[in-house]
Amino acid sequence: MPAKFLKKIPESFELISTNEIKEISCTAYLIRHKKTNASILYLGSTDINKTFAISFKTVPQSSNGVAHILEHCVLSGSKKYPVKDPFLHMLKTSFKTFLNAMTYPDKTVYPVASTNNKDFSNLVDVYLDAVFFPLLRIEDFKTDGWRLDFNSENELVYKGVVYNEMKGALSSVDSYVLSHTIKNLYPGTIYKNQSGGEPEEIVNLSYEEFKDFHKKFYHPSNSQIFLYGDLDLNFYLEKLDGYFSLFELRSDFEVINPQQPFDSVKNISLPIVPAQKNGRDGVFTMAAMLKEKLSQEELLALDVLFYCLFGSEAAPMKKILEDGAADSLINAGVADFVLQPFLYMGAKGIKDGEIDRVVKSFNDLLLDSIDKLNPSHVEAALNSVEFSYRNPSSNNLGIHFMYKIFDSWNYSKEPLETLVFENKIISLRSKDINYFKDLFKKYFVSNEHRLTIGFYPDPELSTRREKKEKDSLAKLYSLMSPVQKDELSLLAKKL
């Protein structure tokens, strides 16, 4: 390990712990900024592809997309970098190996990676200034969020990058069914809201609410910082302190409350816009909420189980496709990007009128596959899962580790547990087959907090939505004065 990883850290920080993680050949340093309590995790390695990411816990109270719009707008100019669009400039000129920003249901993450030292330092500078001191101009809000405009027929329409993006995302079958599955699985929590934004609610977001959201959540005390690779740790700690020291300690951030368990299993029917319009547009999902404090070993065991059931070419659940009633399975697995993880599975491209039958066949096959599970299936799955852990498919390891860490760290769980797997694999190899069968029965079959959603094609759904929006805009247009219409036209030309 290079000696520069072992320097004494600056006085404004406290070293909480140091851990060798042999599985990934890294030394992990967990560090706290004394003044603001910001958390920093550095994975020291010899990898020249360095990674920086800053994450904020962002808790939406509606589906107006404020977290998503803010994610776009903070990268549209800042106090130190007041250019029109520094993000696009970096995309064109940087040596970056990764440059992005992501809105999750309960956090917003800004990651960058580069192999060039100077470039990496510049990227970190731009991102830190962007998140803490964005300009948040009203024209950026209207461009990236939403605004009123006129189309070529002089009709009033909604426009905006996020508005249009979410219209497209929620017309995607996979995005639509996952969003509605999460909403119905956690109806008493913030997860009932679409953090990316529902188009009909995005247009209710005001510029003032947008700015207030930044003040509320974008603060060092509400941040977690991830660093990875062959870099000078003290140099980047000093850079962080240059921003953190400008803020005072805060502790008034919203807590994400857990969902209370259901009393019984739910069966729900929802409409969906036919994507293919070929008589095969039905979809169903099954999901089960897991307990908040599930151990990493149990999560790994569930990963192994899902590989047994769905992962290989010969996986038994693929038999559901043999009679041609469904086109494909939905990506199944354990989702742990929310406070209480959940199991998720289903099928799509189902023949019209066949959803109920396919659901029953799927459920019967699932139970039969669990009963027939044998040690050789589990051993093969363990080998495959272990190989994927030891040999990540990503060629950007820092970003790969970042995803795994933030999925637990955001909920005050031990962030390094997701990277340490060797002892867990050894432990799972010692379990008999009943351990895996019982685990699935406990967390899925006998779990009352479980639901099945049938998404039934509705050919008129899209038309009704469009008519509702068009009627609303026509009414709004009728109430506008000539001066207001002229002002709107002038604004459109500026943007």
From TrEMBL:
The name this protein goes by in its record: Peptidase M16
One GO biological process term: protein processing
Lineage summary: Bacteria, Katanobacteria
Xref: SUPFAM superfamilies: LuxS/MPP-like metallohydrolase
GO molecular function, one term: metalloendopeptidase activity
Ranges for domain Peptidase M16 C-terminal: 204-384
Pfam family, one: Peptidase_M16
Domain Peptidase M16 N-terminal positions: 61-152
UniProt cross-references to PANTHER family, sorted A to Z: PRESEQUENCE PROTEASE, PRESEQUENCE PROTEASE, MITOCHONDRIAL
